[in-house]
Amino acid sequence: MESSKKIEITTQTAPLSKEELTKSIVHVLDSIKKVKDAQEKSTEKKEQWYDKISIRGYAQIRYNGLFSSNDKVSCDQCDKSWGTTSTEEGAKSNNGLFIRRARIVFSGQIHPNVYFYFQPDFASSPSSGVNNFVQIRDAYFDLSFDSKKEYRVRIGQSKVPFGFENLQSSQNRLTLDRNDALNSAVANERDLGAFFYWAPSKIRDRFAMLIKDGYKGSGDYGVFGFGLYNGQTANKSEANRNLHIVTRVSYPFEIGSQIIEPGIQAYTGKWAFTNELSAGVTTPDKQYTTDQRVAASFVLYPKPFGIQAEYNIGKGPRYNKLTNTVDVSDLEGGYVTLNYKWDLPKHQYIYPFAKFQYYDGGKKFEKDARSYVVRDYELGIEWQPIKAFELVAEWVIADRTFEDSALPNNRQRGNLLRLQAQFNF
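== Porin ==
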């Protein structure tokens, strides 16, 4: 018997070259990366509509009772906690701390061509002594027609583009209240309408910078604006189916290290009285009263010294105490504000300011289209130690004549110190 033979075959594997080894490692790493990317993609969070919405706001708390020499000096449109409108002789104001504004802003680019903005105020005061009602201030949509959003139409309740200080947010404004002369054009600066705005993207960026860097800009209302609005002021129904027309041109020029912004604006329309006239007070045309103005603006932004000035003329309703009627009459007035931006360490800012304002005309939305002659001086300072807090102290030297059927002879002069704490969030 033959013995079995075992045949051994030895297989030798040729060693991998350096190039082949490198390719193998790269292949393995690439496979690992693809698996990781697939896992991340499968767990990637889908963007929701609410991810595009931002929320911010501010609140202002005031005290107007310090060193008042005459409590009958007041401004119903400015601040209902300032002074008293009592007709009693020797009347005193009992006002204390007052929430002037408490606003939350919801905004966002909900579509590449659609932006929305909604701002309620939780401190509205419909009448003296009745405070902290919630009321819509802004509720509008911007529809843009190009990728840079240089051309857009704003539809809804928003600010009417008339006057730099009217457009300037109360969160940014130095003085506690807007001037009577231009602010008497539109109560609360807003109305329901449709407005077209145009500005090059470069200038839109400049408008944003003037606010972001603390130069007290007015915001982005275009280089050119044109629009139609009801004309009855915010949160009120149209009363005569006669829309107001407004237009504005304003451009921020860079001159060396300075920026100046001249502007001009105008509007025209017919005002309709609803419940503003007292018993016995008459007017020639209650539903179609002439209401038109033109204004010029000039701003030298504080780098570090600044000037802000505006003046308007026009025609509008005004109470006539001689005839106990409301007549269309000429109106005029404006203001000039001088200010200084003092940059301190740790992003602190101090802004000293001085303002003079003058107005001779009526206020259509007040009782009997109340007649005004105003000459006020304001000296103040704003201190911003941190971004979330600002403190303003303002000394007012007031000379205000405001007359209606209940107070046909009413010139009031006096001084007071006004304080405001503002919280930004």
